[in-house]
Structures are given as structure tokens and as C-alpha cells.
Design a protein that fits this description.
By secondary structure, the protein is an alpha+beta fold. The protein has twelve helices and twelve strands.
Amino acid sequence: MTNRIALRNLLHDRIRLAVTLTGVVFAVVLIAVQGGLFVGFTTATSCVIENTEADVWVASRGVRNFDVTHPLRERKYHQVLSVPGVARAEKFIVQFANWKKPGGGMESVEVVGFDLQSGLGKPWAMVQGSIAALAVRDTVIIDELYLQKLGITGIGESAEISERRARVVGLTRGIRSFTTSPYVFTSFQNALNFTHLKPDQLTYVLILAEPGVDPKELRAAIAAQVSDVDVFTREEFAQKTQWYWMFTTGAGMALVIAAGLGLVVGGVVVAQTLYATTMDHLPEFGTLRAMGARNGYLYRIIMAQAVAAAVVGYVPGIALSHLLVHLAEAGGASILLTWKMSVGLFFLTVVMCVAAAFVSINRVTRIDPAMVFKGA
């Protein structure tokens, strides 16, 4: 009975119902897109770290994120190799460089140089070409998302990195960079040539732990035996990089605030409409009170209105959100909207609408049943 009364209350004024649903849809879309941007950017900041098999990362002292660090000397690499528990250690390079387009123009890129034999730090999600092709001098792999940005139409074409020829031998799909500089994967030796680092320099040492060795214990052992370096497990370094880019640069907070505003605006619209609907039916609620209906019965009617508005508004809202995310991805934006986020957003929408209903509940609790007989 409560559900039937709630639906009749909502459907009584179709225009007001449309305003309510518009508010819910707006809130769902805004939260989904801003939340998706936050998750997409966060994932992009640490995607290379999280897609390596390395258990431990060694960097120069004071490193704040994956993208910007000082070079290490090769002797650090040999010191790491001598630590008990290290099954394998490989040199790794991450450096910014200039990419000269074949048709003219310049772009900044982030050169990622890894050891071809071990594959630690190699590109993933290959769609054309092969990683083995990087064994040839001056070859690179880029993501197909950045072909136009880098002035390339496909594999086999060449550009210049730091005034040195770079031939594209492979393409990946979906490896986005948080910075505006696309990742360019290549062999360690090619990376040395492209970045003008000295032959005895590198930027990271990637480490595989021996079977049965806890990465955290190995991290502590390396930190104790190798001086002037910072040592992290893979998870720790990924979190450190995410925190740096999302919260120390202000980018993440802006997205969180925007998503929060969507929640507030949607809640206010729903609260206002539910309150107006309640006021329209105040005599009916008063009649129910005069007939002996308890407060809990009236609460359930208002809650049912809120939940109905949440469900009906959520469906088109999440559908529109996925459409916008799909269109944005095609345009190069890094937005992630997973099914888990969609489910979580459903419950968040219900909570938002139920919370908004408390404004109406507060009004109903103060109804005087005598108003029915006074003709109020």
C-alpha cells in the first residue's frame, strides 16, 4: 500500500516528476564522469609501475613520482645485485625527450627503456608489431592513441627523438600517460641513445625477489645495504606516484570537488521536489494521521518516493554516462567507468535521494491531524 501511495504522489504532477528525474540524472552523470576521470587519471599515473612484474623499485634519493627522477650510477645496480634475496635486477630508464614529427613540429615524449631479455617494464596490450623488434637499433613502440599527436600513421614510419632517428615497430592500445607526453617504449640501449644519458647511468633498478622472499623484507634489506637511494615495493611506488599527481598538484582535488558538487546539486533538486510533493499532499498525510497512521507508515511512503525517484533516474543517468565515457575515450580522454563503479553509483544515488527525503519527513512529523477537520 505504501508503495502504491508513493507512486501516485510522484505521478500526480508529471512536470514536477520530470524535474526530479532530471536532477537525479544530472547528479548521476556528473558524479560518474568526474569519478571516472579521477579513477582514469589515477590509473594512468602509475600504469607502467603496476604493469611491470618487478617486486621492488630502487630510485634516486628523494624521488617523488615515477615520471621525474635523477639518474643513478651503474654501481648502485651492482650493489643491489649483491643483496641476498634478489633473484634478478634490471636497469630501467624513464626520461623526457623531444619527438620531432616527420611532417614538422615537436612534441614532448616520455622514453621508457627496459631490458629486452627479462622484459621487466615492457609495454603491454600490443596490437601490432612485436616487442622482439626492439632489438634493432633506434626502434620504438608507441600507443595507437597518440599516432596523430606524434605525426605517425602506423608502424614502419620514422621520426626523430633528440635528433636521432626513431622507427616505429609496434603499437599498443590503451597505454595513456597522465602527463601530456606519450610513453615511447624502447630497449635500454636505445633509451640511452635517445635520452643522452651516460653509458653508466640509469633511472631505476627493477628487482624480482627470490621465491619465498617477502618484497617488503627485500625492500628493507636493500635500503639497509645500498646508500643514497629510495626503495619501494611495487604497490608503494604506485601509491606514492598516484598521491603526488592527484593530491599535491591539485588535479585530483578538483575532480573530487566536482563530483561532490554533483552529489550536492542532485540532492538539493531531489529534496526540493520531494518536499514540494509532500506539501501538495499535506492534507492527505494529515488524513492518514487522523485515521491513526503512525509516523513510521508516513516515513515509508516518503522513503518509497525517494527510492523510486532514485531507481527511475539512475537508469537513464548511468546509460548516458557510459555513452559520454565511450565518446570521451574515442577523443583521447582518460575516463574509467567500471561495472563496480556503476553498481556503487546506484547505491550512492539511493542514499542521496533517501537523505534528501529527510527534509520532507521533518515536515510530516509536525502535521496536526486536527488540520483535516479545520479544512486546512
